[in-house]
């Protein structure tokens, strides 16, 4: 039996188109608290060099800069970087935003004290290569701090709905594996010593239907998928998206206050 090599370059090109569709920061900005908690967990210090990988609109980079770190964000979606720059300017924060690939970071070896990613690097299709890059650019004794959605949590379940309508490429592992300690151990081996805990982020929307509508309008990969569906399928897809927060909702007033589990992991590079 012969195996077909995974074309990561083609996959990333399609991913990039997805993230550049819609207006992801409309979703991503609501997740800022995850970055604030991650930066605190990493105990980042003023003056340290911090890199936010797959930064999107810069949540972790901005959180680090608020603590007077020398912060840089890197992402391959130019429109997300542009909004990150706008946010940093609005907050008078000296953050550098650079276009680049999480699997080939534009940084020298051992150049950062802290390397961060909030629900970002987990989407790199080649998990091992992305993990190797995180290690490569971190100084010995430096920290790698990650926040990644778990397979069993609400967003993990949302990805299952999306995969039903748009199956992922063959050979690509689910991004939510990054939300498990077992996968981190497999990717990083004895190069990083991890401390991890599960946390809940609460998605707050007007209703389950509002959640579904918001993600279909603004969450790039879902926006792109929704745009390919015929009307009958789109109605069904929208209903299935609404069912996701409904299953995790703790609100009893018609609104959404749905808990989404993620893994917060802080590791020290040996």
Automatic annotation (TrEMBL):
GO terms for molecular function: S-adenosylmethionine-dependent methyltransferase activity. The keyword Ligase does not apply. SUPFAM superfamilies: S-adenosyl-L-methionine-dependent methyltransferases. InterPro entries: Methyltransf_11, SAM-dependent_MTases_sf. Signal peptide: none annotated. One of its GO terms (biological process) is methylation. It comes from the Bacteria. This is Ubiquinone/menaquinone biosynthesis C-methylase UbiE. Keywords: Methyltransferase, Transferase, Ubiquinone. Gene3D superfamilies: Vaccinia Virus protein VP39. It holds the Pfam family Methyltransf_11. Residues 51-145 form the Methyltransferase type domain.
């Amino acid at each position: 039996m012969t195996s077909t090599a995974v074309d990561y370059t083609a996959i990333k090109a399609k991913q990039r188109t997805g993230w550049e569709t819609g207006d992801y920061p409309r979703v991503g900005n609501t997740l800022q608290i995850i970055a604030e908690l991650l930066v605190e967990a990493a105990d980042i210090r003023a003056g340290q060099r911090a890199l936010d990988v797959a930064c999107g609109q810069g949540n972790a980079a901005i959180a680090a800069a608020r603590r007077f770190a020398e912060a840089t964000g890197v992402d391959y979606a130019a429109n997300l970087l542009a909004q990150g720059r706008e946010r940093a300017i609005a907050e008078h924060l000296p953050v550098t935003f650079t276009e680049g690939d999480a699997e080939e970071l534009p940084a020298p070896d051992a150049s950062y004290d802290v390397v961060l990613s909030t629900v970002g690097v987990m989407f790199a299709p080649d998990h091992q290569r992305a993990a190797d890059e995180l290690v490569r650019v971190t100084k010995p004794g430096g920290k790698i701090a990650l926040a990644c959605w778990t397979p069993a949590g609400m967003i993990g379940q949302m990805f299952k709905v999306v995969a039903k309508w748009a199956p992922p490429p063959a050979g690509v592992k689910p991004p939510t594996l990054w939300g498990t300690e077992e996968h981190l151990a497999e990717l990083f081996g004895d190069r990083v010593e991890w401390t991890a805990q599960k946390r809940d982020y609460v998605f707050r929307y007007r209703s389950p239907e509002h959640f579904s509508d918001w993600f279909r309008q603004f969450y790039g990969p879902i926006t792109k998928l929704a745009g390919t569906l015929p009307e009958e399928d789109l109605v069904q897809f929208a209903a299935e998206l609404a069912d996701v927060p409904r299953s995790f909702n703790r609100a009893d007033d018609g609104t959404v206050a749905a808990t989404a589990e993620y893994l917060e992991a802080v590791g020290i590079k040996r």
